[in-house]
Here is the input.
Amino acid sequence: MTTTMQQNTTIHYSELGFVNTTDMFKKANEGGYAIGAFNFSNLEQLQGVLNGCIESNAPVILQLSKGACNYADPIFLRNMARGAIEYVRSQGSQIPIALHLDHGDTFETCKSCIDNGFSSVMIDASHYDFEENIRITKEVVEYAHKFNVTVEAELGVLAGIEDDVVAAKSVYTNPDEVEEFVKRTNVDSLAISIGTSHGATKFKPEQCTRNADGVLEPPELRFDILEEVERRLPGFPIVLHGSSSVIPKYITIIEENGGRIENAVGCSEVQLRRTATSAVCKMNIDSDCRLAMTAAVRKVLKENPGEFDPRKFMGPAREWLKEVVIHKNTNVLGSAGKG
Ligand code: G3H
Ligand code: 13P
Ligand code: ZN
Here is the structure.
Protein backbone atom coordinates (compact mmCIF):
# COMPACT_ATOMS: atom_id res chain seq x y z
CA MET A 1 0.00 0.00 0.00
CA THR A 2 1.66 3.23 -1.02
CA THR A 3 -0.84 5.04 1.18
CA THR A 4 0.18 3.91 4.63
CA MET A 5 -2.19 4.47 7.49
CA GLN A 6 -0.57 7.36 9.26
CA GLN A 7 -1.66 8.11 12.75
CA ASN A 8 0.24 8.70 15.94
CA THR A 9 -1.38 6.09 18.13
CA THR A 10 -1.98 2.50 17.20
CA ILE A 11 -5.26 0.71 17.72
CA HIS A 12 -5.79 -3.00 18.26
CA TYR A 13 -8.56 -4.71 16.32
CA SER A 14 -10.16 -6.05 19.49
CA GLU A 15 -10.88 -2.47 20.57
CA LEU A 16 -12.88 -2.06 17.37
CA GLY A 17 -14.78 -5.33 17.81
CA PHE A 18 -13.14 -7.38 15.06
CA VAL A 19 -11.89 -10.93 15.46
CA ASN A 20 -8.95 -12.64 13.80
CA THR A 21 -9.56 -15.61 11.52
CA THR A 22 -8.39 -18.43 13.82
CA ASP A 23 -11.73 -19.43 15.27
CA MET A 24 -13.63 -18.75 12.04
CA PHE A 25 -11.33 -21.08 10.09
CA LYS A 26 -11.37 -23.80 12.75
CA LYS A 27 -15.17 -23.90 12.68
CA ALA A 28 -15.26 -23.70 8.88
CA ASN A 29 -12.82 -26.60 8.59
CA GLU A 30 -14.74 -28.74 11.02
CA GLY A 31 -18.10 -27.76 9.52
CA GLY A 32 -17.18 -28.25 5.86
CA TYR A 33 -17.88 -24.69 4.75
CA ALA A 34 -15.89 -21.57 3.81
CA ILE A 35 -16.04 -17.96 4.93
CA GLY A 36 -16.80 -15.28 2.34
CA ALA A 37 -14.11 -12.62 2.04
CA PHE A 38 -15.75 -9.71 0.26
CA ASN A 39 -13.89 -6.61 -0.93
CA PHE A 40 -15.20 -3.10 -0.43
CA SER A 41 -14.09 0.40 -1.33
CA ASN A 42 -17.24 2.43 -0.74
CA LEU A 43 -20.20 2.73 1.60
CA GLU A 44 -22.75 0.87 -0.52
CA GLN A 45 -20.45 -2.12 -1.01
CA LEU A 46 -19.84 -2.32 2.72
CA GLN A 47 -23.55 -2.04 3.49
CA GLY A 48 -24.47 -4.63 0.85
CA VAL A 49 -21.97 -7.13 2.23
CA LEU A 50 -23.00 -6.55 5.83
CA ASN A 51 -26.73 -6.72 5.15
CA GLY A 52 -26.24 -9.92 3.16
CA CYS A 53 -24.28 -11.50 6.01
CA ILE A 54 -26.73 -10.31 8.67
CA GLU A 55 -29.68 -11.71 6.69
CA SER A 56 -28.00 -15.03 6.07
CA ASN A 57 -26.42 -15.09 9.55
CA ALA A 58 -22.92 -15.75 8.19
CA PRO A 59 -19.46 -14.90 9.55
CA VAL A 60 -17.66 -12.51 7.24
CA ILE A 61 -14.21 -11.24 6.30
CA LEU A 62 -14.24 -7.63 5.10
CA GLN A 63 -11.31 -7.09 2.74
CA LEU A 64 -9.48 -3.97 1.70
CA SER A 65 -6.98 -3.99 -1.14
CA LYS A 66 -4.23 -1.47 -1.72
CA GLY A 67 -6.33 -0.13 -4.61
CA ALA A 68 -9.30 0.35 -2.27
CA CYS A 69 -7.17 2.25 0.23
CA ASN A 70 -5.76 4.48 -2.46
CA TYR A 71 -9.26 5.13 -3.80
CA ALA A 72 -11.19 5.77 -0.62
CA ASP A 73 -8.44 6.81 1.81
CA PRO A 74 -7.42 4.50 4.65
CA ILE A 75 -8.81 6.83 7.33
CA PHE A 76 -12.28 6.76 5.79
CA LEU A 77 -12.15 3.02 5.28
CA ARG A 78 -10.95 2.27 8.79
CA ASN A 79 -13.72 4.33 10.29
CA MET A 80 -16.30 2.81 7.96
CA ALA A 81 -15.17 -0.61 9.11
CA ARG A 82 -15.43 0.53 12.72
CA GLY A 83 -18.96 1.74 11.97
CA ALA A 84 -19.70 -1.66 10.45
CA ILE A 85 -19.41 -3.35 13.82
CA GLU A 86 -21.68 -0.81 15.49
CA TYR A 87 -24.22 -1.14 12.67
CA VAL A 88 -24.26 -4.95 12.70
CA ARG A 89 -24.71 -5.11 16.49
CA SER A 90 -27.47 -2.48 16.30
CA GLN A 91 -29.31 -4.90 14.01
CA GLY A 92 -29.18 -7.53 16.74
CA SER A 93 -26.62 -9.65 14.87
CA GLN A 94 -23.60 -11.21 16.58
CA ILE A 95 -21.84 -12.50 13.45
CA PRO A 96 -18.03 -12.57 13.74
CA ILE A 97 -16.34 -9.98 11.52
CA ALA A 98 -12.68 -9.87 10.52
CA LEU A 99 -10.99 -6.90 8.85
CA HIS A 100 -8.41 -8.18 6.40
CA LEU A 101 -5.76 -6.66 4.15
CA ASP A 102 -6.06 -8.23 0.69
CA HIS A 103 -2.81 -8.71 -1.27
CA GLY A 104 -0.49 -6.80 1.05
CA ASP A 105 2.66 -6.17 -0.95
CA THR A 106 5.30 -5.31 1.68
CA PHE A 107 6.09 -5.72 5.37
CA GLU A 108 5.48 -1.96 5.83
CA THR A 109 1.98 -2.21 4.33
CA CYS A 110 1.09 -5.11 6.59
CA LYS A 111 2.56 -3.42 9.67
CA SER A 112 0.62 -0.26 8.95
CA CYS A 113 -2.64 -2.21 8.76
CA ILE A 114 -1.85 -4.22 11.91
CA ASP A 115 -1.14 -0.97 13.76
CA ASN A 116 -4.43 0.46 12.54
CA GLY A 117 -6.98 -2.12 13.60
CA PHE A 118 -6.82 -4.90 11.00
CA SER A 119 -7.31 -8.35 12.51
CA SER A 120 -5.82 -10.23 9.57
CA VAL A 121 -3.39 -9.48 6.76
CA MET A 122 -2.29 -11.16 3.57
CA ILE A 123 1.35 -10.83 2.59
CA ASP A 124 1.46 -11.66 -1.07
CA ALA A 125 5.08 -12.39 -1.91
CA SER A 126 4.10 -15.21 -4.25
CA HIS A 127 5.77 -13.58 -7.26
CA TYR A 128 9.18 -13.82 -5.52
CA ASP A 129 11.17 -17.02 -5.41
CA PHE A 130 10.49 -19.55 -2.65
CA GLU A 131 13.22 -18.34 -0.26
CA GLU A 132 12.30 -14.68 -0.62
CA ASN A 133 8.60 -15.49 -0.18
CA ILE A 134 9.51 -17.29 3.05
CA ARG A 135 11.70 -14.43 4.27
CA ILE A 136 9.08 -11.71 3.74
CA THR A 137 6.20 -13.84 5.02
CA LYS A 138 8.13 -14.79 8.16
CA GLU A 139 8.89 -11.15 8.90
CA VAL A 140 5.19 -10.27 8.69
CA VAL A 141 4.13 -13.28 10.77
CA GLU A 142 6.61 -12.44 13.54
CA TYR A 143 5.25 -8.91 13.81
CA ALA A 144 1.56 -9.85 13.39
CA HIS A 145 1.60 -12.62 15.98
CA LYS A 146 2.76 -10.20 18.67
CA PHE A 147 -0.70 -8.66 18.31
CA ASN A 148 -2.61 -11.88 17.67
CA VAL A 149 -3.24 -10.81 14.07
CA THR A 150 -3.54 -13.73 11.65
CA VAL A 151 -1.53 -13.90 8.43
CA GLU A 152 -2.33 -15.35 5.02
CA ALA A 153 0.41 -15.99 2.46
CA GLU A 154 0.39 -17.41 -1.06
CA LEU A 155 2.28 -20.12 -2.91
CA GLY A 156 1.81 -20.23 -6.66
CA VAL A 157 0.63 -17.37 -8.87
CA LEU A 158 -2.87 -16.70 -10.15
CA ALA A 159 -3.27 -15.45 -13.71
CA GLY A 160 -4.83 -12.02 -14.07
CA ILE A 161 -4.46 -8.79 -12.20
CA GLU A 162 -3.52 -8.61 -8.54
CA ASP A 163 -3.34 -4.88 -7.97
CA ASP A 164 -0.18 -3.80 -9.84
CA VAL A 165 1.00 -7.32 -10.56
CA VAL A 166 -0.24 -8.79 -13.83
CA ALA A 167 0.55 -12.45 -14.46
CA ALA A 168 0.05 -13.74 -17.99
CA LYS A 169 -0.57 -17.28 -16.86
CA SER A 170 -1.03 -19.09 -13.62
CA VAL A 171 1.70 -21.03 -11.89
CA TYR A 172 -0.01 -23.79 -9.96
CA THR A 173 0.99 -24.33 -6.38
CA ASN A 174 3.61 -27.04 -6.01
CA PRO A 175 2.38 -29.34 -3.21
CA ASP A 176 6.00 -30.37 -2.53
CA GLU A 177 6.62 -26.87 -1.13
CA VAL A 178 3.68 -26.36 1.20
CA GLU A 179 4.85 -28.19 4.33
CA GLU A 180 8.24 -26.48 4.39
CA PHE A 181 6.64 -23.10 3.68
CA VAL A 182 4.11 -23.36 6.50
CA LYS A 183 6.65 -24.77 8.94
CA ARG A 184 9.30 -22.13 8.28
CA THR A 185 6.94 -19.13 8.17
CA ASN A 186 4.44 -20.16 10.86
CA VAL A 187 1.75 -18.57 8.67
CA ASP A 188 -1.92 -19.08 9.64
CA SER A 189 -3.46 -19.78 6.24
CA LEU A 190 -2.24 -20.40 2.72
CA ALA A 191 -3.67 -19.19 -0.59
CA ILE A 192 -3.06 -21.68 -3.37
CA SER A 193 -3.29 -21.56 -7.14
CA ILE A 194 -5.44 -24.32 -8.63
CA GLY A 195 -6.74 -22.64 -11.77
CA THR A 196 -8.80 -19.69 -10.52
CA SER A 197 -7.80 -16.15 -11.45
CA HIS A 198 -8.89 -12.60 -10.73
CA GLY A 199 -11.47 -10.63 -12.70
CA ALA A 200 -14.35 -11.45 -15.05
CA THR A 201 -12.36 -13.51 -17.57
CA LYS A 202 -10.95 -16.36 -15.58
CA PHE A 203 -10.36 -18.73 -18.44
CA LYS A 204 -9.56 -18.27 -22.11
CA PRO A 205 -12.49 -19.17 -24.40
CA GLU A 206 -10.44 -22.06 -25.83
CA GLN A 207 -10.23 -23.61 -22.35
CA CYS A 208 -14.04 -23.60 -22.06
CA THR A 209 -16.95 -25.40 -23.61
CA ARG A 210 -20.19 -23.71 -24.68
CA ASN A 211 -23.41 -25.09 -23.20
CA ALA A 212 -26.81 -25.32 -24.95
CA ASP A 213 -27.61 -21.70 -23.97
CA GLY A 214 -24.37 -20.45 -25.51
CA VAL A 215 -22.84 -19.78 -22.09
CA LEU A 216 -19.14 -20.59 -21.65
CA GLU A 217 -18.52 -23.40 -19.14
CA PRO A 218 -15.18 -23.33 -17.31
CA PRO A 219 -12.72 -26.23 -17.16
CA GLU A 220 -12.20 -28.27 -13.99
CA LEU A 221 -10.09 -26.73 -11.24
CA ARG A 222 -6.98 -28.68 -10.17
CA PHE A 223 -8.65 -30.69 -7.42
CA ASP A 224 -5.68 -33.05 -7.50
CA ILE A 225 -3.43 -30.24 -6.24
CA LEU A 226 -5.94 -29.21 -3.58
CA GLU A 227 -6.22 -32.81 -2.36
CA GLU A 228 -2.46 -33.23 -2.23
CA VAL A 229 -2.07 -29.96 -0.28
CA GLU A 230 -4.80 -31.13 2.09
CA ARG A 231 -3.05 -34.47 2.56
CA ARG A 232 0.24 -32.77 3.40
CA LEU A 233 -1.30 -30.13 5.68
CA PRO A 234 -4.17 -31.86 7.45
CA GLY A 235 -6.63 -29.39 8.97
CA PHE A 236 -4.66 -26.36 7.77
CA PRO A 237 -6.78 -23.44 6.41
CA ILE A 238 -6.51 -23.00 2.65
CA VAL A 239 -7.63 -19.85 0.81
CA LEU A 240 -9.01 -19.57 -2.69
CA HIS A 241 -8.60 -16.25 -4.49
CA GLY A 242 -10.48 -15.52 -7.69
CA SER A 243 -13.62 -17.29 -6.47
CA SER A 244 -16.20 -15.31 -8.41
CA SER A 245 -18.48 -17.27 -10.71
CA VAL A 246 -19.20 -14.29 -13.02
CA ILE A 247 -22.94 -14.87 -12.81
CA PRO A 248 -24.37 -14.85 -16.39
CA LYS A 249 -27.56 -13.01 -15.30
CA TYR A 250 -25.58 -9.87 -14.47
CA ILE A 251 -23.48 -10.05 -17.63
CA THR A 252 -26.70 -10.19 -19.66
CA ILE A 253 -28.18 -7.17 -17.85
CA ILE A 254 -24.94 -5.21 -18.28
CA GLU A 255 -24.84 -5.99 -21.99
CA GLU A 256 -28.56 -5.24 -22.49
CA ASN A 257 -27.99 -1.84 -20.99
CA GLY A 258 -25.02 -0.58 -22.94
CA GLY A 259 -22.09 -2.45 -21.35
CA ARG A 260 -19.71 -4.98 -22.80
CA ILE A 261 -17.77 -7.58 -20.81
CA GLU A 262 -15.58 -9.55 -23.22
CA ASN A 263 -15.25 -13.31 -22.71
CA ALA A 264 -16.96 -13.29 -19.32
CA VAL A 265 -16.36 -16.63 -17.65
CA GLY A 266 -16.04 -17.43 -13.98
CA CYS A 267 -15.61 -20.45 -11.75
CA SER A 268 -18.26 -23.14 -11.65
CA GLU A 269 -20.34 -22.76 -8.48
CA VAL A 270 -20.60 -26.54 -8.25
CA GLN A 271 -16.80 -26.78 -8.20
CA LEU A 272 -16.52 -23.92 -5.71
CA ARG A 273 -19.02 -25.67 -3.44
CA ARG A 274 -16.84 -28.77 -3.61
CA THR A 275 -13.75 -26.79 -2.56
CA ALA A 276 -15.70 -25.24 0.33
CA THR A 277 -16.31 -28.70 1.78
CA SER A 278 -12.56 -29.39 1.65
CA ALA A 279 -9.70 -27.55 3.36
CA VAL A 280 -10.70 -24.27 1.70
CA CYS A 281 -11.84 -22.02 4.58
CA LYS A 282 -11.87 -18.64 2.84
CA MET A 283 -13.04 -17.64 -0.62
CA ASN A 284 -12.27 -14.21 -2.03
CA ILE A 285 -15.17 -12.73 -3.96
CA ASP A 286 -14.98 -9.29 -5.51
CA SER A 287 -15.85 -9.43 -9.21
CA ASP A 288 -19.32 -10.92 -8.65
CA CYS A 289 -20.20 -8.05 -6.31
CA ARG A 290 -18.87 -5.48 -8.77
CA LEU A 291 -20.81 -7.03 -11.65
CA ALA A 292 -24.11 -7.07 -9.72
CA MET A 293 -23.69 -3.41 -8.77
CA THR A 294 -22.74 -2.42 -12.31
CA ALA A 295 -25.76 -4.28 -13.70
CA ALA A 296 -28.10 -2.42 -11.34
CA VAL A 297 -26.58 0.98 -12.09
CA ARG A 298 -26.70 0.44 -15.85
CA LYS A 299 -30.30 -0.81 -15.75
CA VAL A 300 -31.60 2.06 -13.63
CA LEU A 301 -29.82 4.72 -15.66
CA LYS A 302 -30.85 3.25 -19.03
CA GLU A 303 -34.48 3.03 -17.93
CA ASN A 304 -34.39 6.48 -16.32
CA PRO A 305 -32.16 8.68 -18.48
CA GLY A 306 -33.06 11.78 -16.51
CA GLU A 307 -32.10 10.33 -13.14
CA PHE A 308 -29.22 12.04 -11.40
CA ASP A 309 -29.78 11.28 -7.72
CA PRO A 310 -27.04 8.74 -6.84
CA ARG A 311 -29.29 7.16 -4.23
CA LYS A 312 -31.66 6.09 -7.02
CA PHE A 313 -28.99 3.90 -8.65
CA MET A 314 -26.64 3.18 -5.74
CA GLY A 315 -29.60 1.98 -3.63
CA PRO A 316 -30.53 -0.80 -6.10
CA ALA A 317 -26.82 -1.54 -6.60
CA ARG A 318 -26.46 -2.09 -2.85
CA GLU A 319 -29.55 -4.32 -2.87
CA TRP A 320 -28.32 -6.46 -5.77
CA LEU A 321 -24.94 -6.84 -4.09
CA LYS A 322 -26.71 -7.99 -0.92
CA GLU A 323 -28.57 -10.66 -2.93
CA VAL A 324 -25.26 -11.92 -4.36
CA VAL A 325 -23.78 -12.19 -0.86
CA ILE A 326 -26.81 -14.13 0.41
CA HIS A 327 -26.61 -16.44 -2.60
CA LYS A 328 -22.89 -17.06 -2.05
CA ASN A 329 -23.23 -17.70 1.67
CA THR A 330 -26.18 -20.03 1.12
CA ASN A 331 -25.36 -21.91 -2.06
CA VAL A 332 -21.61 -21.71 -2.58
CA LEU A 333 -19.76 -21.17 0.71
CA GLY A 334 -22.19 -22.93 3.03
CA SER A 335 -21.57 -20.25 5.69
CA ALA A 336 -25.22 -19.20 5.99
CA GLY A 337 -26.55 -19.92 9.46
CA LYS A 338 -23.04 -20.30 10.93
CA GLY A 339 -22.85 -16.80 12.40
O1 G3H B 1 -7.53 -9.30 -5.91
C1 G3H B 1 -7.96 -8.23 -6.22
C2 G3H B 1 -9.24 -7.70 -5.67
O2 G3H B 1 -10.31 -8.01 -6.53
C3 G3H B 1 -9.15 -6.24 -5.40
O3 G3H B 1 -9.07 -5.55 -6.59
O4 G3H B 1 -7.05 -4.12 -6.43
O5 G3H B 1 -8.94 -3.53 -7.95
O6 G3H B 1 -9.20 -3.30 -5.47
P1 G3H B 1 -8.51 -4.03 -6.61
P1 13P C 1 -12.54 -12.36 -8.04
O1 13P C 1 -12.00 -11.45 -9.08
O2 13P C 1 -12.80 -13.73 -8.59
O3 13P C 1 -13.75 -11.83 -7.36
O4 13P C 1 -11.40 -12.57 -6.91
C1 13P C 1 -11.23 -11.61 -5.91
C2 13P C 1 -10.00 -11.85 -5.11
O5 13P C 1 -9.36 -12.87 -5.17
C3 13P C 1 -9.59 -10.77 -4.21
O6 13P C 1 -8.40 -11.05 -3.55
ZN1 ZN D 1 -7.00 -12.12 -4.73
About this structure: The chain has a mean pLDDT of 93. The radius of gyration is 19 Å. The chain has one domain: 13-333. Residues 13-333 form a domain with the TIM Barrel fold (CATH 3.20.20.70).
